[in-house]
Design brief:
The complex is a heterodimer.
Chain A lengths: L10 H6 L32 H16 L3 H9 L3 H6 L2 H15 L5 H6 L38 E4 L18 E11 L2 H4 L8 E9 H5 L7 E8 L3 E3 L7 H21 L1
Antiparallel strand pairs in A: 1-2, 1-5, 2-3, 3-4
Chain B lengths: L12 H14 L5 H14 L2 H13 L1 H9 L1 H7 L10 E5 L4 E6 L8 H4 L4 H4 L1 H9 L1 H7 L9 E6 L5 E5 L11 H7 L2 H5 L20
Amino acid sequence: MPAFTKRLLTAADVHHNSLRMNGVHDMGGMDGFGPVTPEQNEPVFHAEWEPRVFALSNLAFGVAGINIDEFRHAIERLPPDRYLASSYYERWLGALETLLVERGVITRVELIAKQPAGVDTSAIARPAKTSGPAPAKDRLKARRARFVKGDRVRARVINPSGHTRLPRYVRGKRGVILRDWGVFVFPDTNAHHAGTRPQHCYSVSFDARELWGKSAASRERLNIDLWEDYLESDAPKSKPRSAKRKARPQHAKRASRSEKKR
Amino acid sequence: MSENHHDTSESGPAARVKALETLLAEKGLLDPAAVDSVVDTYETKVGPRNGARVVAKAWTDPEYRARLLKDATAAVQELGYAGPEGGHLVAIENSERIHNLVVCTLCSCYPWPVLGLPPVWYKSFAYRSRAVSDPRGVLRDFGTELPNDVEIRVWDSSAEIRYLVIPERPAGTEGMSADELAEIVTRDSMVGVTKIAAPARRGSKKKSATE
């Protein structure tokens, strides 16, 4: 077997490390992970390296200009099998290595050279991008809030090609605006350094039965924070009178056609 | 579950972290003392005792409770608590009729300045997946049974808002001071997975060592 310790990134690695984001991290509503098992008298950290990763990540944000959205995205970009097999701080470590290499703060070769024998280096720092972030024109002023408390909305159906904070389990579902939290940076663009697109973020309330079907309990609601770009209006369409008048003959026409068939 | 493993082996993450830290220090990008300082902060200074003091104060001071419900970020700052993941705090109150429960399905967002870093169960795939679709089942995993007429509100912290649940003040605590009350407020009750049990009367036997 040849030594792979200094193997460079291959095209296959990049392809495998897709930026598309219907990832395994989007877990809301999945089954099969078993019961929740709280640990008694749990320590803050479970191994000496965990707080080191935590601290390194926090410091690296400043050193490398990493923003929280791209950090989250880097975790989401871990291959699904690795994501599921890793502990929380292992996922942080994977994201941190990847981002520091992508940002050119360190190189993959340097990092791999520092590993002691026995470390599986194939999984270390798998950048998906070979160049820096694309420059983008930013819109710095927030739009006026499109929705107010009580407005009926529908979460858009999207399958974005990058980071998003719109989970699959609410896409296409109907809810009500509970609160306007004010203006926040938009993660879907900020994660890719493609602009901050500040916009209103709302608490949107969904009936559990809208999300999970009629078998869900009637006294359950799910409130989730969604950016304005994730939402469209679901206001009842108040048809103008002229439209109503037009609708009637169409209906009559359809009826007469079916009669003809008979 | 694999996600709960904490690898300490020489070839595992411990070695990779050491390699990364060494490399960054050699490049002059990292002061090892700064790493130690962050570690110290979250191991000793920031934790659920902060949140417990906030809750106890809200229970005993109606004006503080009103300020907390109106602007939790400012209200917890009054007690000196602020920092990363605490810029947009919102307090939600449990009652006899409404029970609030907090989750982050996409990662593990958590109100660090008042609760510290999240426990493993909060970060677990089991909790992240089921808290939204089967909250009553998840509550049962914690031994929390709620009557059917109690409305459950699950909050998925998918943006930058971080939620602190103000649990119900248990009966039989009327004479207790804020300091005494802070002792009985648990971390799990401030995430909304448990209720706070009424404290055992003085002189009565403790039920278990963990109580």
